[in-house]
Specification:
heterodimer; A: 5-stranded parallel beta sheet; 10 helices; about 40% helix; B: 7-stranded mixed beta sheet; about 25% strand; elongated
Amino acid sequence: MLLYGTAIASRLMLGTAQYPSPAVLAEAFRRSAAGIATVSVRREAGGDRAGAAFWDLIRDLDVTLLPNTAGCHSVREAVTTAHMARELFDTPWIKLEVIGHADTLQPDPFGLVEAARILTDEGFKVFPYTTEDVVLADRLLQAGCEVLMPWGAPIGTGLGLTNIYGLRTLRAQFPDVPMVVDAGLGLPSQAAMAMELGYDAVLLNTAVAKAGDPATMAAGFARAVEAGRLAYEADPMEPRDMAAPSTPVIGRAFLT
Amino acid sequence: MTRATVIGAGVAGLCVATELVARGCAVTVFDPVLQPGPHHCSWWAGGMLAPFCEGETAEEPVVRLGQQAARWWERQGVGVTQRGTVVVALNRDRRELDRFARRIEGHTLLDGSALAALEPDLSGRFDRALHVTAEAHLDPRAALRHLRTRLERDGVTFIAEPGHADGLTFDCRGHAARDALPDLRGVKGEMVVLRAPDIRLTRPVRLLHPRFPLYVVPRADGHFMLGATQIESDDRRRRVRSVLELLSAAYALHPAFGEAELVEIGADARPAFPDNLPRIVRRGETIHVNGLFRHGFLLAPALARMATELAFDHSKPEFYYADHG
Protein backbone atom coordinates (compact mmCIF):
# COMPACT_ATOMS: atom_id res chain seq x y z
CA MET A 1 0.00 0.00 0.00
CA LEU A 2 1.46 3.34 -1.08
CA LEU A 3 0.49 6.44 0.87
CA TYR A 4 1.99 9.60 -0.59
CA GLY A 5 4.69 7.47 -2.16
CA THR A 6 5.58 5.68 1.07
CA ALA A 7 5.08 1.91 1.18
CA ILE A 8 3.25 0.81 4.32
CA ALA A 9 3.28 -2.91 5.00
CA SER A 10 0.34 -3.16 7.38
CA ARG A 11 -3.23 -2.24 6.51
CA LEU A 12 -4.09 -1.60 10.13
CA MET A 13 -3.50 1.78 11.73
CA LEU A 14 -3.99 2.44 15.42
CA GLY A 15 -4.61 5.54 17.45
CA THR A 16 -2.65 6.09 20.66
CA ALA A 17 -5.24 7.67 22.98
CA GLN A 18 -7.19 6.28 25.94
CA TYR A 19 -5.13 3.18 26.68
CA PRO A 20 -4.84 2.11 30.34
CA SER A 21 -1.10 2.79 30.13
CA PRO A 22 1.67 3.32 27.57
CA ALA A 23 2.84 -0.23 28.32
CA VAL A 24 -0.56 -1.63 27.29
CA LEU A 25 -0.49 0.59 24.23
CA ALA A 26 2.90 -0.80 23.22
CA GLU A 27 1.68 -4.36 23.67
CA ALA A 28 -1.38 -3.61 21.50
CA PHE A 29 0.89 -2.32 18.75
CA ARG A 30 3.10 -5.37 19.02
CA ARG A 31 0.18 -7.80 18.78
CA SER A 32 -1.48 -5.89 15.93
CA ALA A 33 1.66 -5.26 13.88
CA ALA A 34 0.02 -1.96 12.95
CA GLY A 35 2.10 0.04 10.49
CA ILE A 36 1.00 3.54 11.41
CA ALA A 37 0.29 5.22 14.74
CA THR A 38 -1.78 8.35 14.89
CA VAL A 39 -0.91 10.74 17.66
CA SER A 40 -2.79 13.78 18.84
CA VAL A 41 -0.88 16.97 19.34
CA ARG A 42 -3.20 19.74 20.30
CA ARG A 43 -4.14 19.01 23.86
CA GLU A 44 -0.95 17.29 24.86
CA ALA A 45 1.39 19.97 23.59
CA GLY A 46 0.08 22.74 25.79
CA GLY A 47 1.83 25.26 23.58
CA ASP A 48 5.24 23.71 24.12
CA ARG A 49 6.76 20.26 24.34
CA ALA A 50 4.93 19.23 27.49
CA GLY A 51 3.81 15.95 25.93
CA ALA A 52 7.35 14.98 24.94
CA ALA A 53 7.73 12.09 27.40
CA PHE A 54 4.67 10.36 25.97
CA TRP A 55 5.69 11.06 22.39
CA ASP A 56 9.07 9.47 23.08
CA LEU A 57 7.23 6.30 24.09
CA ILE A 58 5.23 6.46 20.83
CA ARG A 59 8.43 6.89 18.81
CA ASP A 60 9.79 3.79 20.51
CA LEU A 61 6.99 1.77 18.87
CA ASP A 62 9.04 2.03 15.68
CA VAL A 63 6.05 2.59 13.39
CA THR A 64 5.32 5.43 10.99
CA LEU A 65 3.80 8.35 12.88
CA LEU A 66 0.76 10.20 11.60
CA PRO A 67 0.10 13.22 13.83
CA ASN A 68 -3.48 14.45 13.87
CA THR A 69 -5.39 17.62 14.56
CA ALA A 70 -7.95 15.95 16.86
CA GLY A 71 -9.90 18.44 18.90
CA CYS A 72 -9.63 21.28 16.36
CA HIS A 73 -12.92 23.00 15.62
CA SER A 74 -11.78 25.61 13.13
CA VAL A 75 -9.57 25.91 10.07
CA ARG A 76 -7.12 28.13 11.91
CA GLU A 77 -6.77 25.78 14.87
CA ALA A 78 -6.22 22.85 12.52
CA VAL A 79 -3.61 24.67 10.46
CA THR A 80 -1.76 25.86 13.56
CA THR A 81 -1.83 22.36 15.02
CA ALA A 82 -0.51 20.93 11.75
CA HIS A 83 2.41 23.35 11.90
CA MET A 84 3.12 22.29 15.46
CA ALA A 85 2.93 18.61 14.47
CA ARG A 86 5.33 19.08 11.58
CA GLU A 87 7.85 20.65 13.89
CA LEU A 88 7.39 18.12 16.70
CA PHE A 89 7.48 14.98 14.59
CA ASP A 90 9.49 16.18 11.63
CA THR A 91 6.94 14.88 9.12
CA PRO A 92 4.79 16.52 6.45
CA TRP A 93 2.07 13.93 7.12
CA ILE A 94 -1.00 15.20 8.91
CA LYS A 95 -4.31 13.54 9.61
CA LEU A 96 -6.61 16.49 9.24
CA GLU A 97 -9.60 16.67 11.54
CA VAL A 98 -11.80 19.73 11.55
CA ILE A 99 -14.66 19.00 13.89
CA GLY A 100 -18.00 20.54 12.97
CA HIS A 101 -20.19 19.26 15.77
CA ALA A 102 -19.04 19.06 19.36
CA ASP A 103 -21.27 16.17 20.40
CA THR A 104 -20.99 13.78 17.47
CA LEU A 105 -17.54 15.02 16.42
CA GLN A 106 -18.69 14.99 12.80
CA PRO A 107 -16.24 16.59 10.37
CA ASP A 108 -16.97 20.12 9.18
CA PRO A 109 -16.91 19.53 5.42
CA PHE A 110 -16.45 23.18 4.52
CA GLY A 111 -13.65 23.83 6.98
CA LEU A 112 -12.03 20.53 6.03
CA VAL A 113 -11.71 21.46 2.35
CA GLU A 114 -10.40 24.91 3.21
CA ALA A 115 -7.82 23.59 5.66
CA ALA A 116 -6.80 20.81 3.24
CA ARG A 117 -6.13 23.37 0.52
CA ILE A 118 -4.05 25.58 2.81
CA LEU A 119 -2.00 22.68 4.09
CA THR A 120 -1.35 21.00 0.74
CA ASP A 121 -0.25 24.38 -0.63
CA GLU A 122 2.24 24.49 2.22
CA GLY A 123 3.60 21.09 1.29
CA PHE A 124 1.77 18.93 3.81
CA LYS A 125 0.64 15.43 2.91
CA VAL A 126 -2.93 15.60 4.11
CA PHE A 127 -5.00 12.63 5.31
CA PRO A 128 -8.45 14.19 5.71
CA TYR A 129 -10.93 12.65 8.14
CA THR A 130 -14.12 12.94 6.13
CA THR A 131 -17.58 11.46 5.68
CA GLU A 132 -18.50 9.00 2.94
CA ASP A 133 -19.86 11.89 0.84
CA VAL A 134 -18.69 11.57 -2.77
CA VAL A 135 -18.88 15.27 -3.59
CA LEU A 136 -16.85 16.18 -0.52
CA ALA A 137 -14.32 13.51 -1.47
CA ASP A 138 -14.02 15.05 -4.91
CA ARG A 139 -13.41 18.52 -3.42
CA LEU A 140 -10.74 17.14 -1.11
CA LEU A 141 -8.96 15.51 -4.04
CA GLN A 142 -9.15 18.79 -5.94
CA ALA A 143 -7.67 20.48 -2.88
CA GLY A 144 -4.63 18.27 -3.28
CA CYS A 145 -5.31 15.34 -0.96
CA GLU A 146 -4.05 12.02 -2.31
CA VAL A 147 -5.49 9.85 0.46
CA LEU A 148 -9.00 9.93 1.95
CA MET A 149 -10.14 8.77 5.36
CA PRO A 150 -13.91 8.35 5.35
CA TRP A 151 -15.60 7.45 8.61
CA GLY A 152 -17.42 4.20 9.27
CA ALA A 153 -19.48 5.89 11.99
CA PRO A 154 -18.92 8.84 14.34
CA ILE A 155 -15.72 8.73 16.42
CA GLY A 156 -15.84 6.44 19.41
CA THR A 157 -19.28 4.94 18.72
CA GLY A 158 -18.23 1.44 17.69
CA LEU A 159 -21.27 1.26 15.42
CA GLY A 160 -19.36 -0.11 12.45
CA LEU A 161 -20.16 0.81 8.86
CA THR A 162 -23.41 2.72 9.21
CA ASN A 163 -23.71 3.55 5.48
CA ILE A 164 -22.39 0.64 3.49
CA TYR A 165 -24.05 1.89 0.34
CA GLY A 166 -22.28 5.24 0.68
CA LEU A 167 -18.92 3.60 1.34
CA ARG A 168 -19.39 1.28 -1.64
CA THR A 169 -20.23 4.25 -3.85
CA LEU A 170 -17.21 6.20 -2.65
CA ARG A 171 -14.91 3.27 -3.31
CA ALA A 172 -16.37 2.77 -6.78
CA GLN A 173 -16.12 6.45 -7.70
CA PHE A 174 -12.44 6.74 -6.80
CA PRO A 175 -10.98 3.29 -7.39
CA ASP A 176 -7.37 4.51 -7.54
CA VAL A 177 -7.30 6.75 -4.49
CA PRO A 178 -5.93 5.11 -1.33
CA MET A 179 -8.76 5.18 1.19
CA VAL A 180 -8.76 4.31 4.86
CA VAL A 181 -11.93 3.72 6.85
CA ASP A 182 -11.38 5.78 9.94
CA ALA A 183 -13.50 5.97 13.07
CA GLY A 184 -16.59 4.22 14.32
CA LEU A 185 -15.33 0.64 14.22
CA GLY A 186 -16.04 -1.45 17.29
CA LEU A 187 -15.48 -5.04 16.18
CA PRO A 188 -13.04 -6.92 13.98
CA SER A 189 -15.92 -8.13 11.77
CA GLN A 190 -16.64 -4.51 10.90
CA ALA A 191 -13.02 -3.96 9.95
CA ALA A 192 -13.13 -7.09 7.79
CA MET A 193 -16.22 -5.73 6.06
CA ALA A 194 -14.47 -2.45 5.28
CA MET A 195 -11.58 -4.37 3.75
CA GLU A 196 -13.94 -6.59 1.77
CA LEU A 197 -15.45 -3.43 0.29
CA GLY A 198 -12.02 -2.69 -1.12
CA TYR A 199 -10.79 -0.09 1.31
CA ASP A 200 -7.03 -0.01 1.54
CA ALA A 201 -6.76 0.09 5.31
CA VAL A 202 -8.63 0.83 8.52
CA LEU A 203 -7.78 3.11 11.39
CA LEU A 204 -9.18 2.62 14.87
CA ASN A 205 -8.50 3.60 18.43
CA THR A 206 -11.33 3.31 20.94
CA ALA A 207 -12.25 -0.26 19.94
CA VAL A 208 -8.80 -1.42 21.00
CA ALA A 209 -7.94 1.06 23.75
CA LYS A 210 -11.24 0.59 25.61
CA ALA A 211 -11.46 -3.18 25.25
CA GLY A 212 -11.01 -5.13 28.45
CA ASP A 213 -7.84 -6.62 26.95
CA PRO A 214 -6.56 -4.13 24.39
CA ALA A 215 -3.67 -6.28 23.13
CA THR A 216 -5.91 -9.27 22.42
CA MET A 217 -8.44 -7.06 20.66
CA ALA A 218 -5.63 -5.56 18.60
CA ALA A 219 -4.61 -9.06 17.53
CA GLY A 220 -8.23 -9.78 16.60
CA PHE A 221 -8.42 -6.68 14.44
CA ALA A 222 -5.14 -7.53 12.73
CA ARG A 223 -6.47 -10.91 11.64
CA ALA A 224 -9.79 -9.46 10.53
CA VAL A 225 -8.07 -6.83 8.42
CA GLU A 226 -5.94 -9.49 6.80
CA ALA A 227 -8.95 -11.76 6.22
CA GLY A 228 -10.98 -8.94 4.69
CA ARG A 229 -8.14 -7.94 2.41
CA LEU A 230 -7.56 -11.52 1.24
CA ALA A 231 -11.27 -11.83 0.49
CA TYR A 232 -11.18 -8.66 -1.57
CA GLU A 233 -8.13 -9.79 -3.53
CA ALA A 234 -9.63 -13.23 -4.12
CA ASP A 235 -12.66 -11.80 -5.97
CA PRO A 236 -15.49 -13.21 -3.87
CA MET A 237 -18.34 -15.20 -5.35
CA GLU A 238 -21.63 -13.48 -5.92
CA PRO A 239 -24.24 -14.48 -3.37
CA ARG A 240 -27.15 -16.47 -4.74
CA ASP A 241 -30.60 -16.45 -3.31
CA MET A 242 -31.67 -20.11 -3.27
CA ALA A 243 -34.83 -19.13 -1.45
CA ALA A 244 -36.13 -17.39 -4.56
CA PRO A 245 -38.07 -19.82 -6.75
CA SER A 246 -36.51 -20.78 -10.03
CA THR A 247 -37.07 -23.54 -12.55
CA PRO A 248 -36.71 -26.91 -10.79
CA VAL A 249 -34.06 -29.01 -12.44
CA ILE A 250 -34.42 -32.57 -11.25
CA GLY A 251 -36.81 -34.61 -13.29
CA ARG A 252 -36.85 -32.13 -16.13
CA ALA A 253 -35.27 -32.51 -19.51
CA PHE A 254 -33.01 -29.55 -18.75
CA LEU A 255 -30.40 -30.44 -21.33
CA THR A 256 -32.68 -30.29 -24.25
CA MET B 1 19.34 4.53 66.22
CA THR B 2 19.27 4.09 62.44
CA ARG B 3 19.37 7.32 60.53
CA ALA B 4 17.30 7.74 57.38
CA THR B 5 16.75 10.57 54.93
CA VAL B 6 13.57 11.19 52.99
CA ILE B 7 13.59 13.54 50.00
CA GLY B 8 10.16 14.90 49.12
CA ALA B 9 7.31 15.54 51.53
CA GLY B 10 4.34 14.69 49.34
CA VAL B 11 2.15 11.71 50.09
CA ALA B 12 4.88 9.18 49.24
CA GLY B 13 7.54 10.87 51.37
CA LEU B 14 5.27 11.39 54.37
CA CYS B 15 4.07 7.79 54.27
CA VAL B 16 7.64 6.50 54.06
CA ALA B 17 8.70 8.78 56.91
CA THR B 18 5.79 7.48 58.98
CA GLU B 19 6.87 3.88 58.42
CA LEU B 20 10.47 4.81 59.27
CA VAL B 21 9.43 6.42 62.54
CA ALA B 22 7.41 3.32 63.36
CA ARG B 23 10.64 1.35 63.00
CA GLY B 24 12.40 3.68 65.39
CA CYS B 25 14.55 5.53 62.86
CA ALA B 26 15.87 9.06 63.26
CA VAL B 27 14.38 10.65 60.17
CA THR B 28 15.27 13.83 58.29
CA VAL B 29 12.86 15.01 55.58
CA PHE B 30 13.95 17.41 52.83
CA ASP B 31 11.52 19.40 50.74
CA PRO B 32 11.89 22.93 49.39
CA VAL B 33 8.40 23.63 50.71
CA LEU B 34 7.89 22.27 54.18
CA GLN B 35 4.17 22.40 54.68
CA PRO B 36 1.87 20.33 52.47
CA GLY B 37 0.65 22.60 49.69
CA PRO B 38 0.14 23.29 45.99
CA HIS B 39 3.77 22.41 45.34
CA HIS B 40 2.94 18.74 46.02
CA CYS B 41 1.09 16.69 43.42
CA SER B 42 -0.85 14.94 46.18
CA TRP B 43 -2.27 18.30 47.29
CA TRP B 44 -4.53 18.12 44.22
CA ALA B 45 -5.66 14.54 44.77
CA GLY B 46 -9.25 13.45 45.10
CA GLY B 47 -8.58 11.31 48.15
CA MET B 48 -10.68 8.41 46.93
CA LEU B 49 -9.63 5.06 48.32
CA ALA B 50 -11.35 3.22 45.50
CA PRO B 51 -9.32 0.16 44.53
CA PHE B 52 -12.23 -1.62 42.86
CA CYS B 53 -13.32 1.29 40.67
CA GLU B 54 -9.72 1.94 39.69
CA GLY B 55 -9.58 -1.71 38.61
CA GLU B 56 -11.63 -0.77 35.57
CA THR B 57 -8.38 0.27 33.89
CA ALA B 58 -5.63 -0.25 36.47
CA GLU B 59 -3.63 -3.46 36.79
CA GLU B 60 -4.37 -6.10 39.41
CA PRO B 61 -1.82 -4.94 42.04
CA VAL B 62 -3.63 -1.61 42.34
CA VAL B 63 -6.83 -3.40 43.30
CA ARG B 64 -5.13 -5.79 45.71
CA LEU B 65 -2.76 -3.39 47.46
CA GLY B 66 -5.23 -0.53 47.38
CA GLN B 67 -7.53 -2.50 49.66
CA GLN B 68 -5.05 -1.99 52.48
CA ALA B 69 -5.09 1.78 52.21
CA ALA B 70 -8.21 2.72 54.19
CA ARG B 71 -7.09 0.73 57.23
CA TRP B 72 -3.59 2.23 57.12
CA TRP B 73 -4.87 5.80 57.00
CA GLU B 74 -7.29 5.13 59.84
CA ARG B 75 -4.50 3.67 61.95
CA GLN B 76 -2.61 6.93 61.52
CA GLY B 77 -5.59 8.78 62.95
CA VAL B 78 -6.73 10.27 59.65
CA GLY B 79 -10.48 10.67 59.19
CA VAL B 80 -11.60 8.07 56.67
CA THR B 81 -15.20 7.86 55.52
CA GLN B 82 -16.17 4.30 54.63
CA ARG B 83 -19.36 4.62 52.67
CA GLY B 84 -18.31 3.14 49.36
CA THR B 85 -18.60 4.70 45.92
CA VAL B 86 -21.68 5.29 43.80
CA VAL B 87 -21.30 4.91 40.03
CA VAL B 88 -23.89 6.30 37.61
CA ALA B 89 -24.21 7.03 33.90
CA LEU B 90 -26.52 9.32 31.99
CA ASN B 91 -29.32 7.65 30.08
CA ARG B 92 -27.57 7.89 26.75
CA ASP B 93 -24.47 6.23 28.18
CA ARG B 94 -26.23 3.55 30.19
CA ARG B 95 -24.23 0.83 28.48
CA GLU B 96 -21.13 2.37 30.02
CA LEU B 97 -22.54 1.25 33.36
CA ASP B 98 -22.87 -2.35 32.14
CA ARG B 99 -19.31 -2.29 30.85
CA PHE B 100 -18.01 -0.82 34.10
CA ALA B 101 -19.92 -3.41 36.13
CA ARG B 102 -18.44 -6.23 34.05
CA ARG B 103 -14.94 -5.03 34.69
CA ILE B 104 -14.89 -4.40 38.41
CA GLU B 105 -15.44 -6.46 41.53
CA GLY B 106 -17.20 -5.64 44.74
CA HIS B 107 -20.28 -3.83 43.52
CA THR B 108 -24.00 -4.25 43.94
CA LEU B 109 -26.53 -3.05 41.40
CA LEU B 110 -28.99 -0.44 42.64
CA ASP B 111 -32.32 0.52 41.15
CA GLY B 112 -33.58 4.09 41.36
CA SER B 113 -35.15 3.76 44.77
CA ALA B 114 -32.15 2.00 46.31
CA LEU B 115 -29.96 4.80 44.97
CA ALA B 116 -32.35 7.38 46.42
CA ALA B 117 -32.05 5.67 49.80
CA LEU B 118 -28.25 5.90 49.66
CA GLU B 119 -27.97 9.38 48.18
CA PRO B 120 -31.30 11.21 48.35
CA ASP B 121 -30.01 14.08 46.23
CA LEU B 122 -29.64 11.73 43.28
CA SER B 123 -33.26 10.60 43.66
CA GLY B 124 -35.12 10.54 40.35
CA ARG B 125 -32.01 11.34 38.36
CA PHE B 126 -30.81 7.81 37.60
CA ASP B 127 -32.78 4.59 37.44
CA ARG B 128 -29.71 2.40 37.84
CA ALA B 129 -26.42 2.74 39.69
CA LEU B 130 -23.61 0.69 41.18
CA HIS B 131 -22.63 0.78 44.81
CA VAL B 132 -19.05 -0.29 45.35
CA THR B 133 -19.41 -0.96 49.02
CA ALA B 134 -15.89 -1.56 50.36
CA GLU B 135 -14.43 1.76 49.21
CA ALA B 136 -13.68 4.89 51.19
CA HIS B 137 -12.49 8.46 50.90
CA LEU B 138 -10.51 10.96 52.90
CA ASP B 139 -9.61 14.63 52.70
CA PRO B 140 -6.12 14.50 51.17
CA ARG B 141 -5.01 17.87 52.47
CA ALA B 142 -6.10 17.10 56.00
CA ALA B 143 -4.36 13.73 55.72
CA LEU B 144 -1.08 15.28 54.57
CA ARG B 145 -1.18 17.91 57.33
CA HIS B 146 -1.96 15.27 59.91
CA LEU B 147 1.03 13.10 58.94
CA ARG B 148 3.27 16.15 58.80
CA THR B 149 2.24 17.37 62.26
CA ARG B 150 2.59 13.95 63.81
CA LEU B 151 6.01 13.33 62.27
CA GLU B 152 7.25 16.62 63.69
CA ARG B 153 5.85 15.72 67.07
CA ASP B 154 7.69 12.39 66.86
CA GLY B 155 10.98 14.20 66.40
CA VAL B 156 11.39 14.12 62.63
CA THR B 157 13.53 16.99 61.32
CA PHE B 158 12.13 18.87 58.33
CA ILE B 159 14.59 20.91 56.30
CA ALA B 160 13.47 23.42 53.67
CA GLU B 161 15.96 22.47 51.00
CA PRO B 162 15.78 20.34 47.85
CA GLY B 163 17.88 17.82 49.76
CA HIS B 164 20.46 15.25 48.83
CA ALA B 165 21.10 11.57 49.48
CA ASP B 166 22.83 10.92 52.78
CA GLY B 167 23.27 7.33 53.90
CA LEU B 168 20.03 5.39 53.74
CA THR B 169 17.86 7.66 51.61
CA PHE B 170 14.32 7.38 50.32
CA ASP B 171 13.85 9.51 47.22
CA CYS B 172 10.14 10.35 47.01
CA ARG B 173 10.30 13.42 44.79
CA GLY B 174 7.63 12.38 42.31
CA HIS B 175 7.98 13.98 38.92
CA ALA B 176 10.96 16.02 40.11
CA ALA B 177 13.00 12.80 40.17
CA ARG B 178 12.99 12.58 36.38
CA ASP B 179 16.68 13.43 36.43
CA ALA B 180 17.32 10.08 38.12
CA LEU B 181 14.42 8.08 36.67
CA PRO B 182 14.20 8.89 32.95
CA ASP B 183 11.23 6.50 32.44
CA LEU B 184 9.12 8.79 34.56
CA ARG B 185 6.62 10.99 32.74
CA GLY B 186 3.98 13.49 33.80
CA VAL B 187 0.27 12.81 33.29
CA LYS B 188 -1.59 16.04 33.73
CA GLY B 189 -4.63 16.14 35.92
CA GLU B 190 -6.92 19.11 36.40
CA MET B 191 -9.45 19.45 39.20
CA VAL B 192 -12.02 21.90 40.48
CA VAL B 193 -13.26 22.57 43.99
CA LEU B 194 -16.81 23.86 44.38
CA ARG B 195 -18.86 24.89 47.35
CA ALA B 196 -22.44 23.76 46.92
CA PRO B 197 -24.19 23.77 50.28
CA ASP B 198 -27.49 22.86 48.57
CA ILE B 199 -26.14 19.50 47.45
CA ARG B 200 -25.69 16.66 49.87
CA LEU B 201 -23.63 13.70 48.80
CA THR B 202 -22.13 11.47 51.43
CA ARG B 203 -19.76 9.42 49.31
CA PRO B 204 -17.79 9.79 46.06
CA VAL B 205 -19.92 9.62 42.92
CA ARG B 206 -18.49 8.62 39.56
CA LEU B 207 -20.30 9.71 36.44
CA LEU B 208 -19.27 7.48 33.55
CA HIS B 209 -18.96 9.05 30.14
CA PRO B 210 -17.05 7.87 27.07
CA ARG B 211 -15.27 11.21 26.72
CA PHE B 212 -15.73 13.21 29.91
CA PRO B 213 -15.75 10.90 32.92
CA LEU B 214 -16.12 12.69 36.23
CA TYR B 215 -15.83 11.93 39.89
CA VAL B 216 -17.17 14.09 42.66
CA VAL B 217 -15.74 13.71 46.15
CA PRO B 218 -17.59 15.35 49.04
CA ARG B 219 -15.50 17.34 51.49
CA ALA B 220 -16.29 19.29 54.64
CA ASP B 221 -18.60 22.33 54.72
CA GLY B 222 -20.44 21.70 51.49
CA HIS B 223 -17.29 21.50 49.40
CA PHE B 224 -16.89 19.08 46.50
CA MET B 225 -13.80 18.12 44.60
CA LEU B 226 -14.39 17.48 40.89
CA GLY B 227 -11.81 15.44 39.03
CA ALA B 228 -9.99 14.80 36.99
CA THR B 229 -8.60 15.12 33.52
CA GLN B 230 -5.89 12.74 32.39
CA ILE B 231 -3.70 14.19 29.67
CA GLU B 232 -0.34 12.88 28.48
CA SER B 233 1.57 16.02 29.31
CA ASP B 234 3.67 17.45 32.09
CA ASP B 235 2.17 20.87 31.50
CA ARG B 236 0.75 22.30 34.71
CA ARG B 237 -1.42 25.07 33.36
CA ARG B 238 -5.14 24.94 34.00
CA ARG B 239 -7.05 24.84 30.71
CA VAL B 240 -10.45 26.29 30.02
CA ARG B 241 -11.53 23.25 28.04
CA SER B 242 -10.75 20.89 30.89
CA VAL B 243 -12.63 23.02 33.37
CA LEU B 244 -15.57 23.27 30.97
CA GLU B 245 -15.65 19.50 30.69
CA LEU B 246 -15.52 18.94 34.42
CA LEU B 247 -18.16 21.56 35.15
CA SER B 248 -20.46 20.38 32.36
CA ALA B 249 -20.26 16.84 33.63
CA ALA B 250 -20.98 18.01 37.18
CA TYR B 251 -23.95 20.01 35.93
CA ALA B 252 -25.23 16.90 34.15
CA LEU B 253 -24.86 14.93 37.39
CA HIS B 254 -26.85 17.53 39.31
CA PRO B 255 -28.04 20.89 37.95
CA ALA B 256 -27.67 22.45 41.40
CA PHE B 257 -23.92 22.44 40.76
CA GLY B 258 -24.72 25.31 38.41
CA GLU B 259 -25.30 27.51 41.46
CA ALA B 260 -22.18 26.35 43.25
CA GLU B 261 -19.40 28.71 44.26
CA LEU B 262 -16.21 28.23 42.28
CA VAL B 263 -13.58 27.85 44.98
CA GLU B 264 -10.49 26.53 43.28
CA ILE B 265 -9.09 25.22 40.02
CA GLY B 266 -5.95 23.13 40.22
CA ALA B 267 -3.59 21.20 37.98
CA ASP B 268 -0.48 19.14 38.34
CA ALA B 269 1.43 16.36 36.61
CA ARG B 270 1.14 12.91 38.16
CA PRO B 271 4.40 10.97 38.13
CA ALA B 272 3.97 7.75 36.16
CA PHE B 273 6.04 4.97 34.64
CA PRO B 274 5.09 3.43 31.27
CA ASP B 275 2.89 0.74 32.86
CA ASN B 276 1.29 3.30 35.18
CA LEU B 277 2.37 1.15 38.13
CA PRO B 278 4.63 2.41 40.92
CA ARG B 279 8.23 1.34 41.32
CA ILE B 280 10.73 0.88 44.08
CA VAL B 281 14.17 1.35 42.58
CA ARG B 282 17.30 0.74 44.59
CA ARG B 283 20.54 2.47 43.71
CA GLY B 284 23.19 1.87 46.31
CA GLU B 285 21.87 3.29 49.55
CA THR B 286 19.12 5.29 47.82
CA ILE B 287 15.68 3.78 47.40
CA HIS B 288 13.36 5.52 44.98
CA VAL B 289 9.64 5.30 45.67
CA ASN B 290 7.88 6.78 42.69
CA GLY B 291 5.34 6.49 39.87
CA LEU B 292 2.23 6.54 42.02
CA PHE B 293 0.30 7.99 39.06
CA ARG B 294 -3.31 8.63 40.11
CA HIS B 295 -3.01 6.30 43.08
CA GLY B 296 -1.03 8.31 45.62
CA PHE B 297 -3.27 7.93 48.66
CA LEU B 298 -4.32 4.47 47.51
CA LEU B 299 -0.86 2.96 47.08
CA ALA B 300 1.57 5.09 49.12
CA PRO B 301 0.91 3.09 52.32
CA ALA B 302 1.73 -0.23 50.62
CA LEU B 303 4.76 1.26 48.84
CA ALA B 304 6.06 2.79 52.07
CA ARG B 305 5.81 -0.57 53.81
CA MET B 306 7.58 -2.33 50.93
CA ALA B 307 10.33 0.26 50.74
CA THR B 308 11.13 -0.01 54.45
CA GLU B 309 10.98 -3.82 54.27
CA LEU B 310 13.50 -3.66 51.47
CA ALA B 311 15.79 -1.46 53.56
CA PHE B 312 15.58 -3.31 56.86
CA ASP B 313 14.28 -6.83 56.26
CA HIS B 314 16.05 -7.29 52.92
CA SER B 315 12.89 -8.64 51.37
CA LYS B 316 12.51 -8.02 47.70
CA PRO B 317 9.21 -6.19 47.27
CA GLU B 318 6.72 -6.23 44.45
CA PHE B 319 7.46 -3.40 41.99
CA TYR B 320 11.16 -3.80 42.80
CA TYR B 321 13.65 -2.65 40.21
CA ALA B 322 17.25 -3.46 40.97
CA ASP B 323 19.96 -0.93 40.43
CA HIS B 324 20.12 -0.49 36.71
CA GLY B 325 21.31 3.09 36.73
